[in-house]
Amino acid sequence: MAHQKGTALITGASSGIGAIYADRLAKRGYDLVLVARSAEKLAAAATRLSLATGRKVEAIPADLGKSADLARIEDRLRQDTSITVLVNNAGFGSAAPLLSADVDEMEAMIDLNVTALTRLAYAAAPGFAARGEGTIINISSIVAIYPEVLNGVYGASKAYVLALSHSLQHELGDKGVRVQAVLPGATETNFWAVAGVPREHLPNEMVMPAEDMVDAALAGLDTGERVTIPALPDGGEWDRWEAARLAMSPRLSASAPAVRYRQRETV
How many domains is the chain built from? Predict the structure, then answer.
């Protein structure tokens, strides 16, 4: 049996990426709290994982788009000191263009992808910092840096996740809290059915099996990566991107507009 490492709370854990994180973290020695909407799927997953790994696995049915359900999970994160890992995975996407997208659906996407993720991170972070250990894994997407593909609100929600992760890393890194943003590309899950893009329309060479994606993300976590892009062959590309962003930061605020924007006389 693997060594006990505390408890991992995983959202969106009944299928896809969340279910694979549950499997991998249980095998690494974590007990689990699984959160998702489907009570039946969660119960089956909890039983299967407990039998396979010997870990304690608890299933909590909850719709994180509903404030009362979200509050229950926040309370659990605040009160349960055994929780050492939060995997913020719950979310959904869309491929609908702006002019044909349902704005109410876009608001629901923001509620789950942004608001719920933020509130759960805020619920977990103080306890992690006080205990000097803990890990927050936020599932973003490559659309965080490539928003021209898929739906704009979806891309914006995942850009928020990346920005929040940067801020959490900055504030919590010296307090023993690890924060990782994971930016998957196209992944073999039911995401595409929900987003309205038939999976068969995507070239096989660009779609990664979900198991491989999660294994790569955990490998990135093990090596201390703050941002993991599982499909990116050269990690130096991301390092250079980040270096350019940080190098520019001292010049982003000034008491006067840059010379190139000042009014000039025209003939």
Answer: 1
Please write down the long-range contacts of 46-50, taking CB distance under 8 Å and 24 or more positions apart. Answer: 49/22, 49/23
62 in any annotated domain: yes
Q: Is 21 a catalytic residue?
A: no
Distance CA 122, CA 100 (A): 34
Q: What's the pLDDT at 188?
A: 81
**Which residues of the chain register pLDDT less than 50?**
1-3
Q: Are 13 and 21 in contact (CB under 8 A)?
A: yes
The C-alpha atoms of residue 228 and residue 184 are separated, in whole angstroms, by 8
* Choice among 122, 154, 160, 261 that is catalytic: 154
pTM summary value = 0.93
Q: Which amino acid is at 154?
A: Y
Domain holding 121, by residue range, is 7-261
